[in-house]
Specification:
Elements lengths: L6 H4 L5 E6 L4 H16 L6 H18 L8 E8 L2 E8 L19 H9 L3 E5 L5 E8 L16
Antiparallel strand pairs: 1-2, 2-3, 3-5, 4-5
Helix pairs in contact: 2-3, 3-4
């Protein structure tokens, strides 16, 4: 604790945490566990199931589809909001994911539909400085985007 700083301020976890991951399937589970620990630190464990599912879909997409000659490092950025958490997954591919409906015969292709449903449509794709993109989603108590936070959806 910093001398002269109230314990409630000095002991608060950071509002933003970032981490990089290797472009491997095992990163999905590790990122989920990292998110669960962070939600506990932020006193938001009630969001864990939904937030972990959202993160799983976004990291899985990055691992499977973000092939780029610029490298395949994947990064997650978690931002604590007043009513939930903003989840971002960064990769070096410029190919942007699109919401689509998979046919009944397809074994994959439903991830963003799930993210869309779980977030009440509060997700998107942003360009970033340098190569690649950021795919983000906001997970709140009500599965609605009404965070009251003007930065939701803004390029950071």
């Amino acid at each position: 604790m910093i001398p002269g700083t109230p314990a409630s301020v000095a002991d608060d976890p950071p509002f933003v945490v970032e981490r990089t991951w290797p472009p491997a399937p095992r990163s999905v589970g590790r990122a989920r566990r990292f998110l669960a620990l962070q939600l506990d630190a932020w006193a938001m464990p009630h969001l864990a199931d939904t937030a972990e599912l959202i993160l799983s879909e976004l990291v899985t997409n990055a691992v499977k589809h973000a092939h780029s000659p610029n490298g395949r490092v994947i990064a997650t950025r978690l931002e604590r909001l007043a009513s939930g958490v903003r989840i971002e997954v960064h990769d070096s591919s410029d190919c942007k994911p699109e919401l689509r409906e998979a046919s009944g015969e397809e074994e994959s292709g439903r991830g963003l539909l799930l993210v869309d449903a779980l977030t009440g449509g509060c997700w998107g794709v942003n360009d970033r400085s340098g190569p690649g993109k950021s795919v983000w989603a906001v997970c709140t108590h009500s599965a609605a985007c009404g965070t009251g936070d003007a930065t939701v959806g803004a390029l950071r």
